[in-house]
Amino acid sequence: MIKILVIGQPKSGTSMLAAKIKAGLDFHYGVKSQLLFEPKLRDGVLEIKKFNVTKVLYSPNPNHVFNYDRVQELGNLFDKKIIICRDPRDILVSNTLYRWFHKHKPKPEHFQKALDLVQKKEAKPSSVNLYEISSINIHRGMPKSLETYASTIQKEYEQFADTVSQIETSDWFPVKYEDVVSNHTKYLNQYLEFDISEDIAVVEKTAFARTARTKSYGNWRNWFTQDDIAFFKPIFEKSLQKLGYDSSDWGINSEQKIESKTSSEYMIKLFASTDD
Q1: Averaged over 213-226, what is the pLDDT?
Q2: pTM of the full predicted structure?
Q3: What single DSSP character describes residue 247?
Q4: DSSP symbols for 3-61
């Protein structure tokens, strides 16, 4: 019997990691374990089976967790608990595109505005700042001010980074997204006491394949402009430091390339999808 919890921010690789752990767990124990994918925590007690992998998001959503105490309370239900971190700049890019999933009920006019900007940026990455796209609210359109948008996301990312810093001294295991996609999981395997799957595409075999996009890292270097660096550097500096990333490294690619398959086409697919 083993119950495993995976927590991370939206678009930080939680789905991929949970799927890889489940595959490794099933192989090691010869079982078909239960996968609880983002259970609605506000509904009450979780029904956890003997062999279980549960994936929970860290965000202000009432169905997710959004503070250290709640994370610890949930963790008490599990034998192994893992918190996954990803470079906030890569999360920002992924969130900017994934938010248009039809289940989020975005307004068509706001989706079209975002899509037009993304397609313009695909044609010439330097022509549109990422914050012009990422600040579009799926329900309310453009923010009242960029200052409000900046303070909101800064608070969310720093609160997560603070939580990670606090639990490093407990029985949690922090892991980086970049290590998972590179299969640098020796210490994670030791913590779990079995090897997770090395198949990076394992999530595509689940019902949640829509969450997968590039399965890589450092893509923010193709998306950020110099104006973006000036805007986001003070927002992410503390988070990068607390999560163990180089807060002084803001180098973008000299020849930026944004592929439509993982950008505008991805958005269109999510917006038009009828899948759950």
Answers
A1: 86
A2: 0.90
A3: T
A4: EEEEEE-TTSSHHHHHHHHHHHHHHHHTS--EEEES--GGG------SEEEEEEEBSSS
